[in-house]
Amino acid sequence: MLLATWNVNSIRARLPKVLGWVQKRRPDVLCLQEIKCLDEQFPRAEFEAEGYAVETFGQKTYNGVAILAREPLADVTRGFTGGDEGGARVLAATVGGLRVVNAYVVNGKEVGHEKYALKLRWMEALAAHVALELQRHPRLALLGDFNVTFDDLDVYDPVGWHEQILCSTPERQALARFTAAGLVDSYRQFVKDGGHYTWWDFRTRGFLGNRGLRIDHVLLSAEALRGCEGVEIDVEARKGEAPSDHAPVLVRLS
DNA sequence: ATGGCTTGAGTGTCAAGA
Predict the structure, then answer these.
(1) Which residues 100-159 in chain A have a CB closer than 7 A to strand B?
(2) Global confidence as pTM
């Protein structure tokens, strides 16, 4: 099973890019973040025509997540207890015996901002939710845009980003709650060196100099990790006309 | 450089992203 996550920064603005990528890579499960539309505005028919089942949890203008899968999506849940404050950001479903939890973590704006406090609260509530999901579904993947780096290996300029948003100690501690609950950062099981990122700033043209951050993650339970054969950040998808500012992350599971 | 770029909303310019 090929499992993927991609913050597409508007599915309607990115439709040709995402459709072309799906045709090329044929992921079995694709989790999307920042679809930025209502459920009824999602280009469902275009993906169904490619053989995908589609579940969405959207809202007007901001946020919004979706799961596409080549097998039926069962036990679909939208949001979680304690997560309403952040908007439409978490969508879960079971596919092929794997519990898939698709998350778009609150950005937080800047350290100390009220949205930063919301981010930390929201992540704590999500950790509690995922712990419950893990009890019921030992084979689980929590994946998406976490808006947090694990450590300085995930940062192109650790001095410049020191204790800044996406890199602060409290955010990293909140991220560590997921690993403490038994989930593993699949990427680091395979890639031990730095310089591998999933997001690059539009404004500074960060992609040109690979000035990026690794903030999109695929976390796997021990049972799911046992079948993990490889990981990839598809930087090719960050190139070309009108790309998202994020690249997709893929994992191969047996 | 509270900037630079991109999107959505809505038709002038701001909010939000990370």
Answers:
(1) 106-107, 109-110, 115, 145, 147
(2) 0.98
